[in-house]
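call fold(seq) -> C-alpha cells
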Amino acid sequence: MIMTRRALHTGIWLLVCLVALAATNARADVQYTYTGKDFTNALSPYTTNDKVTGYIIFPTELAPNLLLQRVYPTAWSFTDGVYTFSQSSPINIFNEFQLQTGPGAAITGCDFTISDQSGNGIYSLTVSIGMSIEEGLTTHAIMASNENRSGTWTEEPIPEPTSAALFVTAVLGIVGLGRRRKRIDPGQ
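ret:
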C-alpha cells in the first residue's frame, strides 16, 4: 500500500490535534510545599536545627483571596524533624487545614493542627503563619517552637501521567510515520 504525501500530512495533523485536545482536558494536581525556619526554642529530642516541612496536595490550584478558609487536601504530609504526620498515619485523630491566599492564589497565611496518637501520648503539630503563633510539636507542653518567624510556601503542578503518556505516544507515532514514509518513497 502506497501512502500519498497528502494522506501522511493529514494523519500527522489528526494525531497532533488529538494530542492537543487530550492535553487541554488533562487535569494535574497541585502540590503546595511548606519549608519552615529552624526552631528558635527546642527541648530534646529536638534541636534548633530542626524545622517543620511538608506538603499538601489539591486537585486544582487554590482560589485567590481566600480568607482563612477550611480546605480539604487530597494528600498531605508534614514533619517537624523528629515525627512525621500524614493522612496515612495509623492513628490520625485530628487534622484541620485553614488557608489564606492572596490575589495571585499564593498561600499568605495558614492555621492548622495535626494530632497523632501513639504509645507515648498525643503529639500535635501546629503551624500558623500570618497569625504570629509558633510552630512546633507539643506533648502537653511546647517542646519546639519557632516564634514569629514564618516559613515559606511554594506551589508546583504535579505532572499528570496520562498527559505524559499521550505526548510520548504522539512522538512515537510521528517518528513511525516518518520512517514509514522513507520506506515507501526512498527516492526523496
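Residues 29-158 form one domain.
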